[in-house]
Each structure stands twice: as structure tokens, then as C-alpha cells.
Amino acid sequence: MHIPSGDTNTLLLQPFSSALESALLPCLEYDVEKWLYVPNTYEEYRYILGTRGKNPLIGIGINPSTARPDALDNTLKSVQRIALGNGFDSFIMFNVYAQRATDPDAMERRCNLTLHRENMEAFRYVLSLGEKPAIWAAWGAIIEKRDYLADCLEDMIAIGEAYGARWFTAGAISKKGHPHHPLYLRKDAGLDPFDAAGYVKTVLRT
Fold first, then answer.
1. What sign for the dihedral angle of Cα 32, 164, 94, 112?
2. Beta strands in 10-122 (DSSP E)
3. Which of 24, 31, 58, 146 has the greatest number of CB atoms lying within 10 Å of its CB?
């Protein structure tokens, strides 16, 4: 379990650029040739967790939980399985908001704009890792937990457009229109095109 110690505005946040620089250095705790983990130590927030490759599938959740290199939780195991099963050589787990919380109800009530800004810098970096970024919308109905999450997602969609990103879903869309969460997907689940901008307008903004 990870219960936030408090609002992230009380933390001295490590900027993404410096956190990435540290994450690219050799590490005794895990193989940096295999893993991309930013920051590279367990913090109250996480920008990126994934494996290295030339063609990653970028899974988008709402917020990080306890997973770390060589200690994936069930959600991350599913993300990795679906990525490899659909022809990608690696996966990256990213999140709409970077604050760690096992229970999304424990997320802070207001968006920390500094944390969000650094998270978007991390997103730009993630998108730069492949020629045609493939993004898997994998957040489920959890996006309803906080109003600011829709605003964060809209920023991500705009950034994705600049990189020519393609959006996908896996599994059935919910009755409300939310994409399926990675848990409980079939092992052979395929990816379907997803209109992320339309989703924000017709589901989150209505």
C-alpha cells in the first residue's frame, strides 16, 4: 500500500530533466539497460516506469502505485503482457497525474501545477522514444475521481498531437464511455483505435 504523506506541494520535487539524468546512470538496485525508472528511487511521485526498447507501447493510467523495476504490480504485469502480445518490444507506464497512491481516493484534491508541468515534460520525452508513438488509454473510470484529471489529459492529448501519437484501447469500453483498465483483460487482448479528444468532449465534459 502507498498512502500519500501529504499534498505534493509540500515536497521538494525533482525536476524531470535532472531525475532522468540520474535514471540513466548505472544503478545497484536494478539493470538500467533493461529498465527506465524516473525518478530512480522510490518517491511520493513517479514520472516513468517501463522497459527499454525501440518500439514501446505507452500505457496511460491515472496515478502510480507501488510498482518499481523487478517488482511490477498486477496492473503493470498486464500492461507488459499486452504490449508484447501486440508486437511491441517494450512498454512504458505513464500516468495522467504523477502522485503515488494505491487508493485513488487518497489523491490530493487540487492539482499541483509544478508536478503536472514536470509530468508533461516526462510525457514529451516518452513520446520522443519512438517514431510513431502508440498510446494505450488504460485508466478506466478512475479518471472521475478528480476534476483536474480531465484538464491534465487534455494537455497530454495536445502534446501527443505534436508528436503524431496514435491512441488505442484494449477491451470493452464501459457504458459511460471509459476505456478499460488493464486488469482482467484477456492475455491475447488486441488494441483498437481510440478517439481521445472526442472522449474528453463527449464523456468527461458532459
1. positive
2. 35-38, 48-51, 56-61, 90-95
3. 58
